[in-house]
Amino acid sequence: MRIDILTVVPELLESPLNHSIIQRAKDKGVVEIHIHNIRDFSEDKYKRVDDYAFSGGAGMVMRLEPIVKAIESLTNEREYDEIIFTTPDGEQFNQKSANTLSLKKNIIILCGHYKGIDQRIRDHFITKEISIGDFVLTGGELAAAIITDSVVRLLPGAMSDETSALTDSFQDDLLSPPIYTRPAIFRGWKVPDILLSGNHKKIEKWQEDQAYKRTKKLRPDLLDE
Ligand code: ADE
């Protein structure tokens, strides 16, 4: 998979996407992640990427031309399955969206900034608008990092134990069961006996029950779905 991220603050994306599982997935060739600075596509003398809104009022708007040039520099080279815009008024991102995106070959993520982008970009280039929740960030970069992280870890070969992505919370509309490691007793707090029994069938059944109970208690809405 190839992910191209367009941003006016590339520094915000570098750290989250250069470590741990995501870095290893890049090293293994499971994913290519390219971060592009929209400013590099500005023909303005001062490399400006924002301007005043025609409507007046507070807040600057991301200009159309550098974004169009940045997008077309990519789409002229290869086909993209989605051109995503991160914005609080987009559709709510969840595990299903991550699963769907992980099946795509090439995607572009355009990070919103300032008051927003010129609407014509949304009308003519963007194929999907994504919000990571009902709150407003200073820009779409952290949202893009979250989307990328959740998608890349699903790619075959990204994680050493591939079944582990399949047993995540939400993967079958249930939260994960509780999990423990050594020592079996700490300050008198014991790991449930069943997990020490070595009986894999019983352990699996226990995990299913626990996942259901936890979901019912913490996220009953998932069961309604
Ligand atoms: N940009 C600002 N806030 C955002 C959010 N909640 N989701 C996606 N992009 C954003």
From TrEMBL:
The keyword RNA-binding does not apply. Pfam families: tRNA_m1G_MT. Gene3D superfamilies: 3.40.1280.10, tRNA(m1g37)methyltransferase, domain 2. GO terms for cellular component: cytosol. It catalyses: guanosine(37) in tRNA + S-adenosyl-L-methionine = N(1)-methylguanosine(37) in tRNA + S-adenosyl-L-homocysteine + H(+). Keywords: Cytoplasm, Methyltransferase, S-adenosyl-L-methionine, Transferase, tRNA processing. One of its GO terms (biological process) is tRNA N1-guanine methylation. Residues 1-224 form the tRNA methyltransferase TRMD/TRM10-type domain. The keyword S-adenosyl-L-methionine applies. S-adenosyl-L-methionine binds at residues 112, 132-137. Its EC number is 2.1.1.228. It comes from the Bacteria. InterPro entries: Alpha/beta_knot_MTases (IPR029028), tRNA_m1G_MeTrfase_C_sf (IPR023148), tRNA_m1G_MeTrfase_TrmD (IPR002649), tRNA_m1G_MTases_N (IPR029026), tRNA_MeTrfase_TRMD/TRM10 (IPR016009). It is found in: Cytoplasm. One of its GO terms (molecular function) is tRNA (guanine(37)-N1)-methyltransferase activity. Belongs to the RNA methyltransferase TrmD family. Homodimer. Specifically methylates guanosine-37 in various tRNAs. PANTHER family: TRNA (GUANINE-N(1)-)-METHYLTRANSFERASE. HAMAP family: TrmD (MF_00605). This is tRNA (guanine-N(1)-)-methyltransferase. It comes from Ancylomarina longa.
